[in-house]
Design goal:
The protein is mainly alpha-helical and 203 residues long. It has 11 helices and no strands. It has one domain (7-18, 26-194): Orthogonal Bundle (Hypothetical protein af1432). The termini are far apart.
Length: 203
Amino acid sequence: MTECSSFFAIVSRMRYIERWALMRNSRPENLSEHSLEVAIIAHALATIGNVRHGRSLDAEKAALIGLFHDTTEIITGDMPTPVKYASGAIRDAYKDVEEGAGRQLLSELPEDLRPIYEKIYFADAEGKPDADEVYLRRLVKAADKISALIKCIEERQAGNAEFVTAEGTVREKVDEMASELPEVADYLHEFLPPYGNTLDQLL
């Protein structure tokens, strides 16, 4: 008889991890909500790349990577960005911690399923990643930043000045990504402006 696996029970705990721990939030955001939004945006970016920019990207894999990209924070907690990137040494150390957490999560899977999920967590699971894989993961990182920008916009529009500085910093990073990734530029131009509107304004 197959032994019980705790992998999916652990992943389900994303809803208990709150983001933006150093900030006063008008509406708290948990990791589960954020990951769904990143998955949706990552799928959109990959689709835009395929349809408009002649790429051959796996949009469904982009969504999957987006869904699982922060599950390691169930173990590590959400380290605030200013701390995570305070120095190269801290950034590198945290990458090692994240990788270790990812390996720990994967170890909770049955052995026959593990290789499938390893390809979601690690670009080099099957050896050196090809150019499409590298580009796809860049788009997922961009989706992560766009999601953060959306949070900042919504908080500011709710009257929370706490996020004004963060919005400027995140927007600068997203704009930098847009200068290198045309899919991001397309998303910012066509899909970002309506965020923060009421449902009556959107429909």
